[in-house]
Design goal:
The chain is mainly alpha-helical. It is built from 11 helices and no strands. 77% of the residues lie in helices and 0% in strands. The model has no long low-confidence stretch (mean pLDDT 78).
Length: 249
């Protein structure tokens, strides 16, 4: 329910699966299947409400289809511990942006310069690679990109990212099906619960103005960043990764 407004569902679901002894690759793949259905459930309440950015959506989807396939292919190549560290600091950066820019995401910006648009599309592609790989915090960072660079309100960004996340998750899920990484009984259970929760969350988001959505977004992003740094991150493993990288350099 909360994830519709903030993203970052995977920062909760994947660590929980790992705590129950599920293989990291299987956890990521099974979560991606559920995110596909969550995106559908989260998008449905916004249909017909005029909040999607229909003009930019086709290019967003095209960039996401390509980049998510790349990200899913890379899922076994990048250490998850390093990604968790980066995610936490990215999310703290997101929170800092929201605090310092009080009007961002509250009122739409009518004119978007070429430089901002180019940076926004480039980040959409790069984040799509990450979204296909892991997805934890992907929608959060994508929402912030749309607010900061395309001048969308939070509700516009939330609605638009649900469509994009559907395509991102769908492509990545296809790769994981091919790789036989999905735990289907668990995946079906997660898909049903995420679909229902997202549908409820989308309806709640429409009842709030952008100021309230901004506050919810900020509180949850900070909480998840702290959770990732304090509870989820293996600092010893991260230190070994840094030592290995420095030794290689």
């Amino acid at each position: 329910m909360i994830g519709v407004m903030t993203g970052a569902n995977s920062l909760i679901t994947i660590p929980v699966m790992l705590q129950f002894g599920i293989h990291p690759g299987v956890a990521v793949a099974t979560n991606m299947l559920a995110l596909t259905f969550m995106s559908v459930g989260g998008a449905l309440p916004f249909v017909g409400k005029g909040v999607f950015d229909r003009r930019r959506l086709p290019l967003f989807v095209l960039l996401t289809l390509l980049s998510s396939a790349i990200g899913a292919y890379l899922v076994t190549l990048i250490p998850a511990e390093a990604m968790s560290f980066l995610i936490a600091f990215f999310m703290l950066g997101v929170a800092t942006f929201v605090v310092l820019n009080r009007r961002a995401g509250v009122t739409p910006r009518q004119k978007v310069g070429f430089g901002a648009a180019f940076a926004g599309y480039l980040l959409t592609f790069l984040l799509g690679v990450y979204g296909g790989f892991f997805s934890g915090g992907y929608v959060t960072m994508l929402t912030t990109t749309f607010v900061a660079l395309f001048g969308m309100t939070f509700l516009q960004a939330i609605a638009t990212t649900k469509i994009i996340n559907f395509f991102s998750s769908l492509v990545a899920t296809g790769v994981y099906v091919w790789a036989e990484l999905i735990d289907w009984p668990l995946g079906v259970a997660l898909s049903v619960t995420m679909f229902v929760g997202a549908a409820i969350g989308g309806k709640l988001a429409l009842k709030f103005d952008n100021n309230v959505v901004r506050q919810v977004f900020l509180v949850v992003v900070v909480a998840l960043a702290v959770k990732t740094l304090v509870f989820d991150l293996d600092w010893d493993m991260l230190a070994r990764l840094v030592q290995t990288a420095l030794g290689t350099a």
